[in-house]
Amino acid sequence: MKFLRGGDYVATTAVLSKMINMDLRIDQYIYALEDAGGIQILLNLMDAPFIACQTSAMEIMAKITRIPQIQQITLSMGLGKTATDLLMNREQDIVTLAIKIIANITQERYGRTSIRKNNAIPYLVMYADIDRRILYREIGTLSDQDREAAIPALYCVRAMRNLSKCRKGREALYLAGISGVLYDLMESKDVPLVINALYIFNHCAKNETYKNEFGHYKVHKFMINLLSSPSSSVSSLAAHYLLSVCDNDRVLDDVINSGLLNILMTKATASAAEFVPGFYNTAIKILYKVSRRESILEDLNDKNALNFVYNLIEIPADVEAEKYLWELIADFASYPENWLKIWKFPGIEAKLIYNVQCHMYEDVRGSAARIIGLLVHNNEIYAKISHNDILVKLWSLLLVNSPYTVESACRALLPIMKRTEGLPDVIRKIRSGIFILMNLLESRNPDILAGGILLLAKIVQDKLNLEVLTSMGALDIVFSIITTATYPKIRAALCYLIASLGTHRLINFQIGHDGYIPIVINDLKSDDLNVKISAAYALWKLSEDPINCVILHTNGVVEMLRKCLLVDNRDLQTAAGGCLYNIRNLAFNAEVRKWIFFNEPLDSETETHIKKYHERIIDYELRKEIEVSEVPDKIEKKKIKKKKKPLRHVFEDREEEYSIEDLAIVPKVAEKDEGKKDLWLQWGLVHVAKIWK
């Protein structure tokens, strides 16, 4: 440092040459540079008029700026602006060293900001845009002149990789025209260039604008080809890029048409997990992400991907990848033809029970619960798995902290509870079972709350459980949010709860009386299919009450249900058809009662139906009774046998009975005509009973 301060050209050159050969990364030398003011001297020499001194000082600066401590010091002294100014120098060596320095200092956040504000990014993009013929060959085979042009490109790409880590840096690179330059760099056979370009692609893929821009250059197809690269870094980075862009529908169509699924199922093997774990884990995540589209999941199912995924479970992977593997198996379990296939996998029962009880990652426990909830729809599987107290094991999952696990456990409990004998007693015997359910209903997480409402809907189908939960305030908690909740899962669960409460006759009437039917009708207009199905199912159950039918018809639900019949979903069509059937029966029976009791005219459709039923249903003996030629004018009151109870009709969907007296009021008659009217009334009731039957 003493000789450098002297200002002698020969001494300065000699000292710089000596310092170049020293390992300046040693702590002793770093402290000496800081204490003696050597960093400021080197920074001043970078602007020296002598090229030899200038290049030597820049070469030393390029070495020491790899150290984070030196980066912060030099940036505070204005190294960013000095390096940017040197990019416009005519000397190739000086430009190359300036790019090296920029590549080092952009590792710091302040360095990226300094380079961007000094407008160095357009120069970096310009120097990276080298002749395409150079990029097609290995750097080792280039001539000296071409190699001098290729080396700055490598450091330019490294600097741009650091700049692309921040949002404003990505915007500046995009405006400088980096898209076409990157596509040219991807065609290079030089692995370091390709790796740095892939890093830039992965950073820029966080923005939707850049995804569309890169799609113009067909980058996605090129990335698929890089999945087969012998370099583990290249294949892993290409897989990371595809993972980040698969949520775009247009990009997803391109990569699927380019054979992405076949490549992933070929490359994701045990050897890949051992030697290229980064690529292996990312490949599993890509398979899971693309399978969110139903058509792709069907293609994977047709390609027998279920066996492929299950074989990967035994291979070591990170926890997130393991979760995705179990989630994929759960997706395949949604197809009924796969239930027995999954159950016949070696050790699947033990693995599912272990995951539900003991797995350290809570989301994997939720995936296992979801698989069990789908498999138990098969009678054979349920008969085998029910011996493991699976209901109690799934109930224990309601205590974990993961919302996904709690919701999956609640949904898995529904089919198991449906098949469990003596369910009401079993639920009440679970230790703290009802209190756990109350905690779920008070949760602020929407997924946990939706799962708790679904579980409540299944439990309250028993009258004793309904009384217990009502006394604890469960229904008050749920109905307090029925007008404010907007989350689709919660709306669907609330409709399912109303449908379950509709199985109790008095509560069915009370729901309509309290004005909840218009709320359910509003859910029928939802864009979410699950909400629409649950709302239709709730209306179906509520329409079993005649007064509720009148309310439904008044609110114009018939036209909505007719539109639901056109939707290609069997559950929705069944629920809508059942509701329309109940409403139509009420209208038809009302017309019949008008004709019998009030002697009012019928519409043509009702009259046609009555004639058909009259011809087909009334038997010969009943005809003989009706054809009595004369009815006595005077009948003693003592001889008249009054009916002991009104004629009742049992609906096919439940055991509740409805009386005609609930729906119609028989007009009073004079005492002299009482016997005659009563006899004709009995015959009319028999006729109506035949029609209803």
SSE class:
mainly alpha
The backbone outline, from C-alpha atoms, is elongated
Radius of gyration: 39 Å
The spatial strand order of the largest sheet comes to 1-2
How many beta-strand runs?
Answer: 2
The average pLDDT is 79
Summarize the structure.
The protein is built from 46 helices and 2 strands. With 693 residues, the chain is mainly α. It has a two-stranded antiparallel sheet.
Keywords:
Putative armadillo repeat-containing protein 4, 2 strands, mainly alpha, ARM-type_fold, 693 residues, ARM-like
Write up what this structure looks like:
Helix 31 runs parallel beside helix 34. The chain is elongated. With 693 residues, the chain is mostly helical. The protein contains 46 helices and 2 strands. The chain has a two-stranded antiparallel sheet with strand order 1-2. The termini are far apart.
Furnish the topology, listing elements before pairings.
Elements: H1 2-6, H2 9-20, H3 27-36, H4 38-45, H5 51-64, H6 68-76, H7 79-86, H8 92-105, H9 109-117, H10 121-128, H11 132-135, H12 144-163, H13 167-175, H14 178-186, H15 191-204, H16 208-216, H17 219-226, H18 232-245, H19 249-257, H20 260-267, H21 270-275, H22 277-290, H23 294-302, H24 305-312, H25 319-332, H26 339-343, H27 348-358, H28 362-375, H29 379-385, H30 390-396, H31 403-419, H32 423-429, H33 433-441, H34 446-459, H35 463-471, H36 474-479, H37 488-501, H38 505-513, H39 517-523, H40 529-542, H41 546-554, H42 557-564, H43 570-597, H44 604-617, H45 620-626, E1 648-650, E2 657-659, H46 674-692
Antiparallel strand pairs: 1-2
Helix pairs in contact: 2-5, 4-5, 5-8, 7-8, 8-12, 10-12, 12-15, 15-18, 17-18, 18-22, 22-25, 24-25, 25-28, 27-28, 28-31, 30-31, 31-34, 33-34, 34-37, 37-40, 39-40, 40-43, 42-43, 43-46
